[in-house]
Amino acid sequence: MKEKYYMTTAITYTSGKPHIGNTYEIILADAIARYKRMEGYDVFFMTGTDEHGQKIQEKAEAEGITPKEYVDKVSDVVKDIWKLVNSSHDKFIRTTDADHEACVKKIFKKLYDQGDIYKGSYEGLYCTPCESFWTESQLVDGKCPDCGREVKPAKEEAYFFKMSKYADRLIEHINTHPEFIQPVSRKNEMMNNFLLPGLQDLCVSRTSFDWGIQVDFDPKHVVYVWLDALTNYITGIGYDPENPSDFFKKNWPADLHLIGKDIVRFHTIYWPIFLMALDIPLPKQVFGHPWLLQGGEKMSKSKGNVIYADDLVRLFGVDATRYFVLHEMPFDNDGIITWDLVIERYNSDLANILGNLVNRTVAMTNKYFGGEVKKTGATEAVDEDLKAVVTGTKAKVAEKMDKLRVADAITEVFTLFRRCNKYIDETEPWNLAKDEAKKDRLAEVLYNLVESITMGATLLHSFLPETAEKTVAQLGASLRDYDTLDTFGLYESGNKVTEPQMLFARLDSKVVLEEVEKIQAAQKAEYEAEQKKLGGEAAGDETVIDIEAKDEITFDDFGKMQFQVGEIIACEEVPKSKKLLCSQVRIGSQVKQIVSGIKAHYTPEQMVGKKVMVLVNLKPAKLAGVLSEGMILCAENEKGELSLMVPEKDMPAGAEIC
Questions:
Q1: Are the C-beta atoms of residues 373 and 494 closer than 8 Å to each other?
Q2: Distance of alpha carbon 632 from alpha carbon 453, whole angstroms
Q3: Contact, 644 vs 566, CB < 8 A?
Q4: Are 2 and 41 a contacting pair, CB within 8 Å?
């Protein structure tokens, strides 16, 4: 009997169309699910949408439709994008599903009856985007400590959950289960910032709006969004407080909750405590993945720089989109995405390393042997290293995937493909073909290549499923059984390859970027139309600009950013780039190289000598092939014009901005 593996993503909040940073999570989860299935696990992979709350009600009212009509529309958009990127999830749950709502009511009642939930009232400062109450002392500069937005005084009757009752038990669990919260940095943050200082009771109902699951024994209350949303992980597999299903008993506890790092607190503190109160085992692991950020810029429609999965798929294809987001995301640090980087990775890795390898191998097999792949036994010493790399890749990939180091696992597969390309250079099939006496050796070389690529494609399937299937089809093979991937030579001698078909043709960056400009122009036009509709161009001399909000961060996240005054001592254009300038910026006693997309607004000569605001501890990244070691901050007006953020008074280079 197969061992079960139950995994979930966070359910997507239905506030709008998910961008590529949101879509990254479903692609990552899908790669893990596919790999686990290949290993032989009985996988149940669930995702879905989170559809209740005050923010949703307000958005629906702004559009003049009901909240249910609004979430139906957005949920369909999410489903379409998940389908587009080839997600293989087994279930898509919605928190407006009737069975979920019925179970949440039972859970709330059970927790109330056993004394974990009590009725009280709350008076404080409320942040609508975060749907959170705060005290005056918790605010940062008078604003929400999580997202930095305005808060409003609010008072309402509410039900509360006794969090402190279970805090010590949760601390003990975390200390005795080091694998529970990953990466370790997330665990340390939860312990030091929340659990050890002491937990306050949690508000779990609201009365100031009605778009939520009604508390059936007190109908003016609706269940607070986190108690509603988090319980999807058990309601979706058949949990019922009175009679849990056999399917729930089979699959719980979850083997993996895959979530963004911004909601680790809810999944590693609130959720485990709710489960303890229900006397249900805790999930085995919660992995808080990093974010995928738009390189060097804030992502917003006003700039026209929001990157969506459907645009990426249209320009590059499904598997190229999957490859970029999976390969470019570090294990515990944020990744960067730009159109230039996607083009560069497409051409260098997919077109050159993989596409060219398959194309050459199939073409040579057709040219020299009429497409027939024959094992002749004419081996040489150089073959052994190739075979060792190929047969050793399975274990290396498994070791990385066990630790959820997906980017590193893909790198191991591409190391196999690189070794195949090197093998072609070492054996020079075109020269072997000139000597009839070396025909058997030539056949053996091509057999080794076909077998190696078949094994590599099988390991690639979890990450790039369509590409893997197209590859083995060209080779006249099928995906290999996982258990055989450490055995070389199973390709049946005498099989024939098909005609070569280019998997990834090289892209002309100029042509692609022209399409990108159209996408950005359309986004700006859409944003301007929305602003006019909402009265964004209100009366008055000063134009008010609203930008699309990014995912919320905690004050602790903000505190990790280091801003200082920098003096630009040299600046030049980045070759072959329409947008980028490369500045040498003196910050205290050091000089950092920073690439900025401001070429349309400043000349290099205008930049030199200016003192600017710099984010100095941004992880270095390459933009258009040039290393950037920070970020120069700018403001942008409604026309898209940029202005450097400069200190009002003369400040020394290196002065801290606080």
A1: yes
A2: 45
A3: no
A4: yes
Which 8-state DSSP code applies to residue 263? G
Phi, psi of 615 (to 5 degrees): -85, 110
Using pLDDT thresholds of 50, 70 and 90, give the confidence band for residue 271. Answer: very high
Q: Which of these ranges, 145-149, 361-365, 532-536, 556-560, has the smallest mean pLDDT?
A: 532-536
Strand partners, 5: 43
Dihedral sign from CA coordinates of 517, 519, 520, 522: positive
**Gap between the Cα atoms of 200 and 591, Å rounded:** 45
- Count of CB atoms situated within 10 Å of the CB of 652: 11
How far apart, in whole angstroms, are the C-alpha atoms of residue 488 and residue 650?
69
Instruction: Provide the residue count of the chain.
Output: 658
Residue 70: the pLDDT is 97
Buried b (16+ CB within 10 A) or exposed e, 98-124: eebbebbbebbebbbeeebbeeeebeb
Rounded to whole angstroms, the Cα distance separating 581 from 595 reads 6
Q: Which residue has the tokens 């280019």?
A: 502
Sign of CA dihedral 23, 11, 292, 299: positive
CA distance 87 to 90: 9
- Which pLDDT value is given to residue 208? 85
DSSP, res 620: P
416 to each of 379, 423, 455, 492, 496, how far by Cα in Å?
A: 19, 11, 9, 21, 23
Q: How far apart are the C-alpha atoms of 265 and 273, rounded to whole Å?
A: 12
Phi-psi region of 86 (alpha: psi -120 to 50; beta: other; left: phi over 0): left
Query: What kind and span of H or E run contains 159?
Result: strand 152-161
Pairing of strands 634-636, 642-644: antiparallel
What tokens does 507 get? 């892209």
Q: What is the DSSP string of 430-483?
A: HHHTT-GGGHHHHHHHHHHHHHHHHHHHHHHTTTSHHHHHHHHHHTT--PPPGG
Roughly what angle, to the nearest 10 degrees, separates helices 406-427 and 439-460?
Answer: 170
CB of 571 within 8 A of CB of 584? yes
Question: Which of 165, 128, 157, 158 has the alpha carbon at shortest distance from 144?
Answer: 128
Q: What is the per-residue pLDDT for 549? A: 41
CA distance 51 to 61: 15
Helix (H/G/I), strand (E/B), else coil: 303: coil
Distance of CA 122 to the CA centre of its chain: 36
Which of 456, 517, 535 has its CA nearest to residue 491? 456
pLDDT digits (tens, 9 = 90+) for 33-45: 999 999 999 999 9
Stated as kind and residue range, the H or E segment containing 294 is strand 292-294
DSSP for 48-84, written as a single string: EEE--SHHHHHHHHHHTS-HHHHHHHHHHHHHHHHHH
DSSP bridge pairs for 587:
590
State the Cα–Cα distance between residues 123 and 135, nearest whole angstrom.
8
Q: 3-state DSSP helix/strand/coil percent for the chain, to nearest 5?
A: 45, 20, 35
Task: Using pLDDT thresholds of 50, 70 and 90, give the confidence band for residue 547.
Answer: very low
Give me the numbers of helices (H) and strands (E) for the chain, helices first please: 23, 24
The structure's pTM equals: 0.80
Residues 6+ away with beta carbon under 8 Å from 24: 289, 292, 325, 329
